[in-house]
Amino acid sequence: MTHPRKIIIDTDPGQDDAVAILLALASPDELDVLGITAVAGNVPLPLTQKNARIICELAGKPQTKVFAGCDAPIKRKLVTAEHVHGKTGLDGPQMADPVMPLQDQHAVDFIIDTLRHEAPHTVTLCPLGPLTNIAVAFQRAPDIITRVQQIVLMGGAYFEVGNITPAAEFNIYVDPEAAEIVFKSGVPLVVMPLDVTHKALTNRARVEAFRALGTEPGRMVAEWTDFFERFDMAKYGSEGAPLHDPCVIAYLLRPDLFAGRHINVEIETTSDLTLGMTVADWWGVTDRKANALFMGSVDTEGFFTLLTERIGRL
Ligand code: BDR
Ligand code: CA
After folding, report:
1. Which of 64, 71, 212, 216 is the most interior residue, by most CB within 10 Å?
2. Domain of 51: which CATH number?
């Protein structure tokens, strides 16, 4: 019997983060969620940590440990995305405040302690928001860096370029210094950029399939998507909304659904114009060392089949 893979989900929920967390909590045979660490991003930290607990309760897993982490990027003012996710970060359906507790420990300390305590190369980090918590943990405890099994993250873009600026994707843009630390860390990285997540697109049939599950989590996923797809439909003229963050968890469950290239990716931290850009050497035009498996495509049908089936288990 193989043991479930140990993961820490670092997140700024966000409706698409919420779907990612539900997917992970619905998959206990494959994934052991050691903790969920909240970071400031889509909305400020008091909301992201609260939203993380709302989602755990919705999944029927109130015993999940949720930690609050950094409330601002390493050296910049926080940029948020209420224009996409609404004032609460989880706008759409009405949801009650959570009753499960927030852990006392700071998320960064939890990440450090967990990596020191678990056997080397047995814990995978899954960042779904700005990389502040992970980078601060690496800065404070460099000894943990070589103990990480893998980092599978949502962030960046190459062909799709930017969503928060013409050049940068939101998660990397919010804390480019943190992203630089992570991308230079030497930890094996799997990156889900907008190039992939803009292919993980909902449409009416896919949203209705969530609703048709007839469960509370199914209904919530449908209502969240109904809410935040208005933004992408207006902006891109697309049929629905990209489910960015669930790509990270789907990769852990079904890596065969994704394809990409092992390439060098550097983060722009100085230019005003292209701050937070992921400079991805997709065409191999430099001799810079590969540091990331940078994904380019996803089997969209396979992705939604997996997602719907798993959400249906909750
Ligand atoms: C990323 O930014 C956030 O708004 C989403 O939750 C996702 O993690 C997409 O750029
Ligand atoms: Ca996110």
Report:
1. 64
2. 3.90.245.10
Residue with the two structure tokens 């890596």: 255
Ligand 2 centre to CA of 243 (Å) is 10
Residue type, 160: E
For residue 266, the one-letter residue type is E
Residue 164 sits in which domain range?
A: 5-311
CA of 81 to the centre of ligand 2 (A): 10
Ligand nearest to the CA of 172: 1
Q: How many domains does the chain have?
A: 1
Closest ligand relative to 21 C-alpha: 2
Residue with tokens 């814990």: 123
- pLDDT digit string, tens, across residues 93-124: 999 999 999 999 999 999 999 999 999 999 99
**pTM metric for this prediction:** 0.97
Q: Average of pLDDT values for 28-33?
A: 98
DSSP-derived letter for residue 201 is B
